[in-house]
Design a protein that fits this description.
Layout lengths: L1 E6 L3 E6 H8 L4 H23 L10 H82 L1 E2 L2 E4 L7 E5 L8 E6 L7 E5 L7 E4 L3 E6 L4 E3 L1
Antiparallel strand pairs: 1-2, 3-10, 4-9, 5-8, 5-10, 6-7, 6-9
């Protein structure tokens, strides 16, 4: 490989690289670094002369100011949204707590209503039993109550003692006859004239009542 060596006095000579390389490699590393640093400084100074002695501050540019304003606006919107969210969450939590409390009250009232319904049903059942008992008693009483007319014991009415349901008037008449005698065979009769008379009736008898009101089996 060839290398050129320029000498102002002698001109340009071509030298063998192999012969010159050995002395050049003996240069000290520290000297090379100082030379490189000096060249770098000169290059920076040359660039500074071309573009000015100082670099511009990027924070003073319009673009930077616009971005900074946009950033501040976004941060303000973010803070506002966060505040709004926290306010809504607080209201939501309050509503949730209120709903939970109301649901608990409703559940308690439903329990009370259930107990009341159970009590009402129990009372209704008791009333029904009483009504049935009263109705049965009324039916029995109605079956054992007779008025004016002629009744055959053992067929129309049961045998037993019958008493006037209320005080009779002076025109009341009752009579007991042998069944089938058509009133000709009188066993007993009376015109009580007042009070609540009673009669004892047996099978094979007819009972006749006139203007005495109702008679009830005792």
């Amino acid at each position: 490989m060839l290398n050129t060596d320029t000498n102002p006095a002698a001109g340009t000579h071509i030298k063998d690289v192999g012969q010159e390389s050995q002395p050049r490699d003996t240069a000290k590393p520290g000297r090379k670094r100082r030379i490189f640093a000096a060249v770098s400084v000169l290059a920076l100074l040359a660039g500074a002369v071309g573009v000015g002695t100082t670099l511009p501050d990027p924070t003073s540019s319009d673009a930077y100011a616009a971005l900074a304003g946009e950033k501040a606006s976004v941060e303000s919107e973010r803070d506002s949204a966060k505040s709004s969210y926290e306010s809504m969450k607080s209201k939501y939590d309050t509503l949730q707590n209120g709903i939970a409390a109301r649901e608990a009250k409703v559940a308690a009232r439903e329990t009370e209503v259930g107990k009341a319904d159970a009590s009402v049903k129990t009372a209704e059942a008791a009333v029904k039993v009483r009504e049935e008992a009263v109705t049965g008693a009324e039916k029995t009483k109605a079956a054992n109550t007779i008025g004016d007319g002629t009744w055959t014991v053992g067929k129309d009415i049961e045998a037993g003692t019958y008493r006037a349901a209320a005080d009779v008037g002076s025109s009341c008449y009752w009579g007991i006859y042998a069944t089938g005698s058509n009133g000709s065979n009188i066993i007993d009769n009376d015109i009580p004239g007042g009070g609540r008379p009673s009669v004892a009736l047996s099978g094979g008898q007819d009972f006749k009542s006139g203007r005495c009101g109702k008679w009830e089996k005792q």
